[in-house]
Amino acid sequence: MTAPLLAIENLSVTFPGENARDRAPAVDGLSLRIEPGQTLALVGESGCGKSMTALAIMRLVAKPGRIEPGSRITFEGEDILGASVPRMRALRGAGMAMIFQEPMASLNPVQKVGDQVVEAIRLHEKITARAARSRAGELFERVGIPGARDRLSAYPHQLSGGLKQRVMIAMMIGLHPKLLIADEPTTALDVTVQAQILGLLRELQQELGTAILLITHDFGVVNELADRLAVMYAGRVVEEGARREVLGDGRHPYTTGLMRSIPTIGRRGEPLEEIPGTVPAPGTWPAGCRFTNRCPIAFEPCADEPPPSTSLGRSHSARCHAVAREPKS
Amino acid sequence: MSAQPAPLLEVSGLKTWFPVRGGVLQRARGWVRAVDGVDLGIATGETLALVGESGCGKTTVGRSILRLIQPSGGTVRFEGTDLMTLPPDEMRAYRQRIQIIFQDPTSALDPRQQVRDAIAEGLDAFALTKNRRERTGRVAELMEMVRLDPDLMSRYPHEFSGGQKQRICIARALAVEPRLLICDESVSALDVSIQAQILNLLRDLKTRLGLAYLFITHDLGVVGNIADRIAVMYLGRIVETGTVSQILDDPQHPYTKALLASVPSLDLDRRGAQAAPTGEAPDPASPPSGCHFHPRCPHAFDRCASEGPAMREIRGGFSRCFL
């Protein structure tokens, strides 16, 4: 096995609970790895800890959130959690960069978008303002912004949501990161614009070999972009594998339940399969498998014993007592 | 739509324009034609999905029907009565017949109001229950109808999850026994597993209560699941209407085709097949001439830029396209 670009081992992020002494986990003992140039999708519903995982990688978990001792994240072998603040600042951008669901929240509303891109480039590279501006223009062209050079002088509010997301992508690729963390990058966009942005991310990855950690709740987006995916539920990865393994042959009852509850164009007029109940809030998670009280096939050990990870194929695994009992079915 | 027998709701030539004001005197300098001549019909017990991307005017259509926004022109007939010309007190009575639920249940509920009072708002407004006991009984009945535990009626909205809050909003809308429910992106903000629960609930209520829905959404998967008929909207105009299978299996208008092609596929062998239409959706304040879609349309020819096509019947549905 080659050295992973990013390796997360036993990551736990906690927040203060009901009383001051308790801390409720948002991410609980999570391990993941991303190979260079690979797209890994982290999939799950709100509150499962997927965004918190991304923030932990960037070391952007805000107080009172805390990355617990014993967690380990390495980027190209370098320990990120122990890195100094200046070192971390250098890694952000050039090593790994992040785009968010709402591009407006990441852009300065009173600064021209071109200047913001120039500023980002010059923070990480010794280059004249003129050269950086010319690069920004090329980047805008590269990400398909119409009238690219003129748009450098636009303010964020003058651009549509899709164009703002393109500006963010242009800014990120201008830094040549090895890992792009994309947190719901197309969720706020219309479908036709989403298709354009997904196409753009796919192209960039093929051309530049950037690895992508894609955070999403949308299995359609996962299928379009991911090489591998990890399904998260209540702070843990419950199933992980190559795209075909998980989407085509998902084994965890949460994965299969989610897949069957998606309304699709092909699935007409019939009631959808429901997963009863709601995702339990952090701090109220059952001791054993956290999906127990919503699971249609839960049996005795599920409530009390955390399920082991069962290997189901070359790179496919699931954490479920039922799967552990009958891995072959 | 001519084939529909005595529709419950019949919208014709609906126009809602917003003034663009400027100058010292704040005079109207131009108009945003948010809704520009929309025709729609919904039969009793039918679900019509109004589909389109942000800014196409679909939400304005829903609000104009209820006169939450005053339309600039056109007629909205509900059970034969033109709602547009009704004096306010008579319009109020029709708000009992048509109810609306929104995308974000949290902002639709008063955080300081107990759930029982939220659900009973319509009951109180229209004096539908005689005394406190009857009111409580009706609230409990409504909560059961939307599969919420009636024992929770004294709680406050923040004690409920997003999906449960949407159930509260549905119960509140149903309290006045409407005939038509306008659902404006009502499942869009919910997680998939919760979305499935709410869609199933809405389907179930429709059968049990004979409700009709105007389902406003951008999500074609949801549309395929819940709708009987579909109207596709682009920049203030309906560009195509038809049954679910006409629109989803055999779309005629180039915009409908583009919209369908850009939905990410769950088919393992079909990825990367997305064909996104080029360009950005234009500004509704200065829509393109002729057919609004022509600058992005792969089939556009000279006539498209100069002349707006009319709706015409094609393969059982209607499409606003010269082709």
Summarize this entry quickly.
In chain A, about 35% of the residues lie in helices and about 20% in strands. Chain A contains 13 helices and 13 strands. In chain A, α4 runs parallel beside α7, α5 packs across α7 and α7 packs parallel to α8.
Helix-strand blueprint:
The complex is a heterodimer of chains A (329) and B (323).
Chain A: E1 6-16, E2 23-34, E3 39-43, H1 50-57, E4 66-67, E5 72-75, E6 78-79, H2 85-94, E7 96-99, H3 103-106, H4 113-124, H5 129-142, H6 148-151, H7 161-174, E8 179-183, H8 191-208, E9 211-216, H9 219-225, E10 228-233, E11 236-242, H10 243-249, H11 253-260, H12 300-304, E12 309-311, E13 317-319, H13 321-325
Helix pairs in contact in A: 4-5, 4-7, 5-7, 7-8
Chain B: E1 9-22, E2 27-42, E3 47-51, H1 58-65, E4 73-78, E5 81-82, H2 88-97, E6 98-101, H3 105-108, H4 115-119, H5 121-125, H6 132-145, H7 162-174, E7 180-184, H8 192-209, E8 212-217, H9 220-226, E9 229-234, E10 237-243, H10 244-249, H11 254-261, H12 302-306, E11 312-314, E12 317-319
Parallel strand pairs in B: 3-8, 3-9, 6-7, 7-8
Antiparallel strand pairs in B: 1-2, 1-4, 4-5, 9-10, 10-12, 11-12
